[in-house]
Every structure is written in C-alpha cells, then in structure tokens.
Amino acid sequence: MSLFLGIDLGTSSVKAVVVDADGHVRAEAVSDPIPLSRPKPGWSEQDPEDWWTAASQAVLDLPADLRAGVKAIGLSGQMHGAVCLDANDTIIRPTILWNDGRSEAACDELERQVPESRSITGNAAMAGFTAPKLVWIRQHEPEAFDRIRCVLLPKDWLRLRMCGNKASDHSDSAGTLWMDVAARKWSDAMLAATGLDRATMPELFEGSEITGRLRPDIATGWGLARIPVAAGGGDNAAGAVGMGAISDGEGFVSLGTSGVIFVADDHFRAAPDRMVHAFCHALPGRWHRMGVTLSAASALDWAARSFGFGKTPALLAAVDADRMGEGPMMLPYLSGERTPHNRPALRAQIHGLGMEHGPDALAAAALEGVCHTLADAHRALGAANPLPDALSVIGGGSRSDLFCRTLASALDTRLERRDAASAGPAYGAARLARLCLGGETPTAVCAPPPIEAVFDPQPDLRDRLKSRARIFADLLPAATRASALLSRTAT
Predict the structure, then answer these.
(1) Considering 169, 235, 265, 301, which one is annotated as catalytic?
(2) Is 235 a catalytic residue?
(3) pLDDT tens for residues 465-480?
(4) Global confidence as pTM
C-alpha cells in the first residue's frame, strides 16, 4: 500500500502524519513543545535546531512499519520566519518569527522605498512578514546582516537539513513580501529594497513538485527510503489542500496558534488596504486570500495558564454556554493584530471586570474575544467578494464543539468539521507528497474529506454576539492608545 508522510512545522510543535491512498490517517505524532524566546516585549524568536529536534522526534514516533512504506514527503510550516544563513549554511542568529512586531517601522520604510510595493506583492507591508525583518537586522545588527548569504523560511530550513538543497514553494514565499505574487516569481525591486538579491533566495517550485530526495543519512536515521520531498506549502495553503479548499470560492477557518479565514481563488485578487493577505496557493494556477488574527488558540492557552485552568480543555469546560455574550469582554491582542487593523503594538485588555466575576467569566471572555477578532477578519475578507455560505474548520481549536458553535454564531456562517481536521496542514502536506509522484490530478487527490460535524449559527447567540461586536469595536481606539503608551513605558 502506498503511504505518504506530511510534516508540519508549527510554532508550538511539529506534527507528522502518515496518510494512505484512500486518504485515511494511518498514524499521527506530535513532538514535545518547541521552546519560544521573547527577549523583549513584542519579540518572538526560535532556534531552528529545536525545529530539527522536534521534527525528528515526531517522525520517529510514527510506527516503523508505516515509515518503511512511505513513498514521498510533503512539508508545511509556520510562515514568514527569517532563517539567516552564512556562506557555510550556518545559522547566524535566532529566527525572528511571524508574530514578532519589532519591524513595524521597517514596513513604512519599505513602502517609501518601493511606492508600488502593494501592487507588486498584493499585500500591505506588515511586521510579521519576512522582508521587514531583514531591514531591521540591517539597521540594528549590521555585522549579522553582512554575513547573510541565504534567507530561508522555517519549513525550507528543514528541507535543507533533509535534502541538502535550498528550495521553497510559491505559497510560503508569497508571505515574504519579496514576491511578485501575481507572476509567481521573486521581485528584484522588493529584494533590492532590503539589500538582497535573487542569489540569496531559494529556487521556487509549485507545492506539488519534487524539490529533492532525502539525504542517505537522514533516510537511514528516520527509517525511510531515499524518497522524494515535495515543495509543500505554507501552513494555511497546506491546510486548504487537506480540506479540499482548492477551487474558486472554497474556504475554511483555521483555529491554531493564530486564527485564519481562508478563501481560494482561481485568479489573483488583492485587497491590501483592508489588510487582507493575497498569496499564491500551493497548487499551480491558484491563489488565495486570508484574514489573519495573531492570537486564536494561543490566546486560550494563555488564558488557561493565567486564570488557573492549566490547559485549554479545562478552560472551555468552565464556560457556561448559555451565558456566552454576557459579562466582561477581552480584547485578545496578545501579539498585536493583522486583519483588519495591522497594529503589531496592540495588546490585550479586559473590560467590565467586577467583583462578581470569577475565572469562569474570564474563560468566556477569552473565547468570545477570539471569535470577535475572527469575525473582524471575516468581514474584511468579504468586503469585496462574497464569502462561502459554509466553511470547513481545522486546527487544534476545531476539536472543541463550544469553540465551533460560538464562532459559527459570531461569523453567522455554517462551520463543517471534517475528518482529519485536527491533522490540519500536515494532512495537506501528505496530499502534496502524493501529487509530486505524478499521475493524479489535484481535483482527484484533494477532495474535501467527509463531514464529521456541522455547527450552524444559533440565533440567540448570534444576536447577542452581534450586539457585543459593536462594543468590542468601540473599545479598540482606547486600547490602541493605551497599548502605545504602555509600549513606550516598557522601552
């Protein structure tokens, strides 16, 4: 039986899944948590060597007999991180991640240097993207910048370790701000604005193309043959491949560390002024748009730790579903925000807290706040083009019926949890691995998995959340001012 391995490098862990030719997940493994460093407020970094340790653990935790039958590997991973390498491919500094806000000023500089940048890239410059990070390094760490000979995205650094070559796919690279996204190629103008050129960039491939084969030592160590490795995709594009959101107008919601509303397009549609992301899809001739909120499941994880629940399932269990949309309100901007605000310095706040409220009210406030931020992204995404009547839901947060029901009401949209939803991008990466072998079409391989559960908007909850959304919006200007003042105090 043909088997395919998908490896997803997340922010918190690495997930590996083995998928068979019938689309069934035969095995799944998740690594131990990956260390995260926050050396200053608003900063977020990781050591790529920790990624390699986690990836090896996840793969080796899969059953040996299944590993031996794998025919190809696909990669997906957290986007935007800047892995800076010298002439010997040595890591120069810790990787600045997607949820790092230090390069906000660099975004303004980039758009001044290249006034047509939004037309070239289809996106507003945002601190989380890769290019502004390199401007920051050039300004603040010039000795490190002078050593840079290559910049790779996180999953592509794993590929370098696995295969020995530097390659990327269009979907992940579209999030660097170095690509002409409509033309699916590197932009010389955007590279020059950061002091780089094409020689520092990996070769670009479609997500379903072969980029190389496992090195002999890695194949032996992982109990695999010297099988091909597909280009793969950024985490959300790979998640879309897994959920079958590959044709025009199909979409999903991702409830991972960040939250994403995703819609596939058959041609390039950009909306940079609404802070909507417009990227290449992981399959040829396709693009996609996203509304992104930086703190989704991660906000619930933080609340669970901070409010005494320990783990997120315990926090969700404490929420009184019948009283959702009451009590205090939390703006869950723990790492800033993208769509529709693009404010990396924005921070979380809790309003309306009284002596009568306990941890259960705080748990409900955190859940409600995340749903409001996703609803903001949903509205921005649908401002120009109608959105689907139903969206698939994936990611770790999709395991919670309460999360799904509340979000469906906040979006006023049916949510469909499908088989393999929690496998997320790793499942899509396995599908891209299958496609790289040839002989099959994306339509045949990337059909939507069977629906496991449906969550329709609940009229009473929808109406309460709609009313509360207006309060949520009214709180934002004061939260923005307070965040700016506190940020200056902290520095």
Answers:
(1) 235
(2) yes
(3) 999 999 999 999 988 8
(4) 0.92
